[in-house]
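Notes taken during the Thursday session

The instructor put the following on the board and asked us to keep it in front of us for the whole hour. The protein is Oligopeptide transport system ATP-binding protein. We were told not to look anything up and to reason only from what is written here. First, the residues (331 in total):
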Amino acid sequence: MSRLLNVDNLETKFRTADGHLPAVRKISFSVDKEETLCIVGESGCGKSITSLSIMGLLPSNGEITGGSIRLDDENLIGKSEEEMEQLRGNALSMIFQEPMTALNPVLTIGYQLREPLTIHKNMSKKEATKASIELLDKVGIPDSKEKLDQYPHELSGGMRQRVMIAMALACEPSLLVADEPTTALDVTIQAQILDLIHELQSDIGMGVIFVTHDMGVVADIADRVMVMYAGEVVEVADVESIFENPQHPYTKGLLESVPDVDDVSQELQVIKGSMPGLNDEISGCRFHLRCPFATEVCKHKEPPSFEVTPTHYSKCWLQEVNQSGQPDTIT
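Then, after some discussion, the predicted structure tokens were revealed:
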């Protein structure tokens, strides 16, 4: 695989009455072509803000204050809104969590599907209509020709989400950012949507960033996993290593909080406490107030990102090499 996206020391802050507060704290990661990177963590960890930073869709009080975001070696930071509009829906697309807020309620499905095709592909209305029908067919929407004249409220939640996917993939993007696109759907429709994204990914060779808090979804679709906590990347590894050998206490806590339907005697674990707010100043490791393994060094010194293996990194002092020359592990 070849490298598609490189994010280096990305820092995103929000202007508030309390000053400029960091929501994303100098994070770095990459996505290869045809790769699915899942970003996981609790609400408020910074995963959605990371996605919006990449797309150039931050709210008016948000701004990128450092780092670089390179798509096919082209830095997206500093581009004008007009330049980003040329990229969005073309090389760069996004599926949002709630299609009723992302789709325009007063425009037909057909109009909203044709728009990126006429703007980015210079298609005529007739050509765009034909392509729109083909897109709806591809995402499994029946009676696709009739659906073009309908409005979003006339479709079910699953159908609206399929329309969003069709719009996102209309111009065959290099990178698809999916921000919890299946959260509001029942499990049957969710499975169909995930299969659809994977199938279309294989067809056009795009990279996928999939934002979720659902570790079951991660197990199904991820090639690599990036765990975020309080605006930082605390662990990143291939999906097998995350599930079989988690090295950060937060990752372990997330996995233990997933119920096992085959084990009725299992006691569901929880991560005590809550995610710190943007204006909470925490010295040392930002997770130490909730961590059952925290030591004195965790309270006063921020850990670096330790290499567990060449493809597995954990930002935790437990990885510091002990006197025997072996890294401490979580048991």
